[in-house]
Design a protein that fits this description.
Layout lengths: L29 H9 L2 H11 L3 H9 L6 H13 L3 H9 L12 H18 L12 H15 L4 H24 L5
Helix pairs in contact: 2-3, 2-8, 3-4, 4-8, 5-8, 6-7
Length: 184
Amino acid sequence: MTRGPTLPAHLPGRVAIPALPEQSRCTPPPALLDAFNSAPEAEARHTLLACFRSPSWAHRLTTHRPYPDVDALLAASDEAAYDLTWGDLTEALTAETLPPLPDDAYGAAHMALNAAQAAYESRFGHSFVICLHDLPPDEALDHVLAAIRSRLANDPEEERVVAAEELRRLARGRLLDILRGARL
């Protein structure tokens, strides 16, 4: 297994946000957006909660249907995520887990990830969250470990901003997956 780049440097007073690749621009089929727009409210809310575990966010997106296109839905998703209170974000964070390690990851990787996650939770009081959408699976472990270690240098307020942004990105990626027909 090849190792990724060394850990990024962290500058004092700067929020550590790992760089991620741009999201792919694969346009979901319109029929899936139409199905979401016309789904019963409870079903749409359930689908949205699989993307972002905030009832406030899911309620807002459900009640503003129908969306004319995917870009409008994604814009509404972003806006709803930006408007959440810290309590709403905390609720969503408690339901998140780290992405699974690849099946061939070695035991030391599991120990390193568990130790980094424990340090993060001890420092910030919530689960580490990161969007790995469109990141090749063989780069995920190094990226997660580097991000946790880098973000441990953030102060708690800075990290809230980063965690909220990662949750928003996760929701966006998961919405796109659902609209492309993937199962969560």
